[in-house]
Design brief:
Blueprint (H helix, E strand, L loop, with lengths): L1 H28 L4 E7 L6 H20 L12 E7 L4 H13 L4 E4 L3 H17 L6 E4 L16 E3 L4 H12 L7 E7 L2 H17 L4 E8 L8 H10 L3 E4 L4 H12 L5 E4 L7 H5 L7 E5 L8 H13 L10 H17 L4 H8 L3 E4 L2 E6 L4 E3 L2 E8 L14 E9 L1 H4 L11
Parallel strand pairs: 1-2, 1-3, 3-4, 4-5, 6-7, 6-8, 8-9, 9-10
Antiparallel strand pairs: 10-14, 11-12, 12-13, 14-15
Helix pairs in contact: 2-11, 3-4, 5-6, 7-8, 11-12
């Protein structure tokens, strides 16, 4: 009986040892994911823009994970996006940031609103100084107020979109040769980004086209105007042959719709006129009249670019989900590269590597400028046309209208001077 008891105990101890070894092996082979907090408008007037960004970033993480994830000494780790709704408000964004940090997230992504980006930069700077063991890095894919990488530049903040002055210079490269435009109406959203767009427009028009008369120059409340007919009437009455706007989201779509309703026939020089309902709102009235600037368009030439776009549409086949931005994909590639080169997820080490990343995807390439953390990449200016016309192979959001590229600006030409005085840890 005693011998049998010894055998049973031995078997139990052996079983426990085997179970422990399996548990240890599982722990070393399956690493926890690297979590990224998307702090964006998931409700309210700009919810459609937040959802569109979420799709882009989820697809980017899926591509990284499909090739094995982010390689680290302890084992590869996947990237995971987690949503935090800022409701388009500064205070809500700060509350979301606090929640994300409390949840253990150390990478934050945001972009739809330069005002929100500015308060996040300030909050992250203070947090990282107070809590060196819980530092956070901030990836910005769309907040393009130039001050974010100039006066308000931060070691923890990295912008992957071309800022407003870079985009404006690209648009002016086209406007300066557009002899049909002799008068222009400037209109924008009344916050830091919209103000900077109109300020730079006045400056660059004076230099590039001093013969062009500015016949309107006004700002409107961000996300609060439901009826743009009064603005459209003023635009038409001014006799402006073109409108220049940095509007985005519903503020752009509603402006475009109102312009069509009142019969305005001028051109639109836009930062974001190539998506979120704008082409469908204008229809044939927008052909050869809507100009947009971006880091990439679906009709960019090359087999790699076409395969990239087709892959996205296969992943998100609904026409309303057709909103893909190369810069958001390059941003996630940069994060993966930065973490791998750092060999850790420590924010300081990763930020140090992000300062010098150079990434490429589908024939596009970009490099981070260490001096101000402004991503340097080529820009393209495109003109709206009907699908099937030369240069318009793909349409936008199932509208039957797309954008053909009319000018490409190399990264070195798109670059702008910087005034950043960065404090490094």
């Amino acid at each position: 009986m005693q011998r049998l008891l010894k055998r049973v105990l031995a078997a139990l101890f052996l079983g426990a040892a085997i179970a422990a070894s399996f548990a240890a092996a599982a722990q070393t082979s399956v690493q926890p994911p690297i979590r990224i907090a998307l702090i964006e408008s998931m409700s309210g007037a700009f919810a459609n823009t937040g959802e569109a960004v979420f799709r882009n970033l989820v697809w980017a993480t899926e591509r990284v994970n499909a090739r094995g994830g982010v390689a680290l000494p302890g084992g590869a780790r996947n990237l995971v996006m987690e949503r935090y709704d800022n409701k388009g408000q500064n205070e809500e964004a700060l509350a979301a940031l606090r929640s994300a940090i409390d949840d253990g997230v150390r990478v934050v992504a945001q972009g739809n609103s330069s005002a929100i980006a500015a308060v996040l930069i300030d909050a992250i700077n203070k947090h990282n100084e107070r809590e060196p063991g819980k530092r956070v890095i901030f990836l910005n894919y769309s907040a393009v107020d130039p001050i974010l990488t100039n006066e308000k530049c931060s070691f923890w903040h990295f912008r992957f979109d071309a800022h407003a002055d870079m985009r404006m210079a690209a648009l002016m490269d086209v406007l300066k040769d557009d002899a049909s435009v002799k008068s222009i109406y400037l209109i924008g959203q009344d916050y830091s980004f919209g103000q900077s767009v109109l300020r730079e427009a006045r400056k660059q028009i004076a230099v590039q086209r001093p013969d062009v008369q500015i016949v309107g120059d006004e700002l409107h409340a961000l996300g609060r105007v439901k009826d743009f007919i009064p603005y459209a009437v003023k635009i038409k009455s001014s006799g402006a042959q073109a409108v220049l706007t940095g509007n985005w989201g519903n503020d752009l779509t509603l402006l475009i719709k109102a312009a069509k309703e009142v019969g305005y026939e001028g051109k639109f020089y836009t930062f974001y006129g190539n998506a979120l309902g704008v082409p469908a709102a204008l229809g044939d009235a927008g052909i050869d009249k809507v100009v947009a600037v971006a880091d990439w368009f679906p009709n960019a030439p090359g087999a790699a670019s076409e395969a990239f776009y087709r892959s996205f549409r296969q992943r998100f086949p609904k026409p309303q989900d057709d909103y893909v931005h190369m810069r958001m994909q390059l941003m996630m590639e940069a994060l993966a590269q930065g973490i791998e080169k750092a060999g850790t997820t420590d924010a300081t080490a990763v930020a140090t590597q992000l300062e010098k990343v150079s990434v490429s995807l589908a024939g596009r390439q970009g490099t981070m400028r260490a001096a101000d953390h402004q991503f340097q990449q080529p820009l393209e200016v495109a003109l709206m046309g009907k699908q099937g016309a030369p240069g318009v192979r793909f349409d936008v959001e199932g509208s039957g209208y797309g954008f053909r590229i009319i000018k490409t600006i190399a990264a070195d030409r798109a670059a702008q001077p910087q005034s950043c005085k960065m404090a490094r840890p």
